[in-house]
Amino acid sequence: MNRRRWLVLLLVLGLAYGVALVPESVALPPEVTTASTPFRWDADEFWTGLERKFEATRAAGCDASRVAIVRDLERLEQIMAEIAAQAGDSEAAGGLDPSAPILDEWEATLFQVGPGVAACSEHLPRFTASIGASRALVKRLSIGWPIDAIEARERLYRWLYGGRAALEEAMLQAPSALVPSVVHGVDEPSRTPSSEVAGVRVHSGDLLLSRGGAPTSALIARGNDFPGNFSHVALVYVAEDGAEPVAVEAHIEGGVKIATVDEYLADRKLRIVLLRPRADHARLLADPMLPHRAARYAFERASNERIPYDFEMDFSDPSKLFCSEVASEAYATQSMSLWMGLSHISSPVVQAWLSGFGVTHFVTQAPSDLEYDPQLRVVAEWRDADVLFDDHLDSAIIDALVEHAREPAPLPHSPWMLPLGRALKAWSAVQNAFGYEGVVPDGMSATAALRNRSFSARHAAIKKRLVVSVADFERQHGYRPPYWALERLAGELLGEAAPGE
Questions:
Q1: What are the residue ranges spanned by the domains of the chain?
Q2: Which residues on adjacent β-strands are paired with residue 203?
Q3: Distance (Å, whole) CA 408 – CA 224
Q4: 165 Cβ partners below 8 Å, 6+ apart?
Q5: E strand or H helix at 300, and its extent?
Q6: What letter does residue 331 receive in the DSSP assignment?
Q7: 20 to 30 A from 302, CA-CA: which of 87, 98, 427, 495?
Q8: Whole-angstrom Cα distance, residue 378 to residue 381?
Q9: Is 184-383 a CATH 3.90.1720.10 domain?
Q10: Of 253, 241, 237, which is closest to residue 203 (Cα–Cα)?
């Protein structure tokens, strides 16, 4: 090739590179106009007081503190008995509404019990049982509450999320051997086909909530107005012949897929909760096999057609499905609506970040909020003691990032990598055409993929430094930092962040 041809080739390549550098236009979403506002505990002094109580109990020793801890646990159980008595036998809560003062008393007592159990883990089994019983109780109470009302949503959140938070703070101070891998909830009756999974009987139509290990999973879990613990929903299907159950789920990499139990569990998860429709629900009393038909519908649809991932999070359009929509669409075919309380993402910062990934609907069905649906019981919760702290680290970083964001804007990415990203996107389109998953997921733009890469890298850099800060905290104090301390440590790192972090 002569010199002239080389110059022409270089010119063409340069022009192609220049064109590939032209950024996509990403309009910031309009602010969501809702009556909902992001929930805030606004209790920094209260958390600090609990930490001081924990330190005082550790200093006094468990023998000296045993009587006081048992007394607090007994008081918590007594309040629960009083709530149950006031509610009566009615599944509609017997007139006990979300503003009842005794519910405030339970919450205050719960958090006061936690530091003693965290300091003296011999009491952890009793505290775990008490939290499980209280969760079943508030789920029963909520059947008669207007879930769309802010008072009811906040009460459910404070009780369910707050109870889990108090329990896990105690678990994280205990030896791993004392942390149960599964905590059983209500063994809700079901007539649908079933199978045993990890020590729990699951039924066709059950729902699995989980938290993935990716930074974007933490963002999904923490990003709505009621920051939660879960980022993914899967629907369980068990065939009539009792074959191994499968999970029908949607992933950004390949849309709706069917996973065996082993495949589902192999995809890294930091926690899992099993939910089941109430056996006394009017729709199930008339048709006990409804959950199974919903699950079979999802299974057969996923088996027979290619369903792309819904990056927009538009649960009204079944042509594409995101993870929550797999469950809600299946149940909707059986005239049962899940997510009695829709999720609101009102934070302008979170809206801007998610819009950069293709999200356009900010009143939607967030995985975490399914737990608060009164139509569902909590059957079991699995935790891995060795990775539970990872969940807390990831969530604290996300909370700190949102809190310290200067202005709402799409997540940054390297503009110089855009040509490569577009080349990979083109190659992924070829792979998709032949039925393979591409490097860049179908439906995700090259820019969104680069944003995800940059966000994950930034999260990893902060986490690496946060782990060092945690080790320093443990050397200084002799215990793991609680969640509020983790968030503070992450915030301090952001205040002194190195360029690019």
A1: 44-180, 184-383, 399-495
A2: 194
A3: 15
A4: 483
A5: helix 290-304
A6: H
A7: 427
A8: 8
A9: yes
A10: 237
Any idea which residue has 């056996």 for tokens? 279
User: Are 321 and 307 spatial neighbours (Cβ–Cβ below 8 Å)?
Assistant: yes
pLDDT in tens, the chain (501 residues): 566 554 544 444 444 434 444 455 555 555 444 456 789 898 889 999 999 999 999 999 999 999 999 999 999 999 999 998 887 755 544 468 898 999 999 999 999 999 999 999 999 999 999 999 999 999 999 998 988 888 999 999 999 999 999 999 999 999 988 999 999 999 999 999 999 888 899 999 999 999 988 899 999 999 999 999 999 999 999 998 877 899 999 998 889 999 998 899 888 888 999 999 999 999 999 999 999 999 999 999 999 999 999 999 999 999 999 999 999 999 999 999 999 889 999 999 999 999 888 899 999 999 999 999 999 999 999 998 889 999 999 999 999 999 998 788 888 877 666 666 666 666 566 666 666 676 667 777 778 888 888 899 999 999 999 999 999 999 999 999 999 999 999 999 998 654 444
**Side-chain-side CA neighbours of residue 417 (13 Å):** 15
* pTM recorded for the entire structure: 0.89
Cα distance between residue 381 and residue 244, in whole Å: 20
Non-local (6+) Cβ contacts of 54 within 8 A are: 115, 116, 118, 119, 173, 479, 482
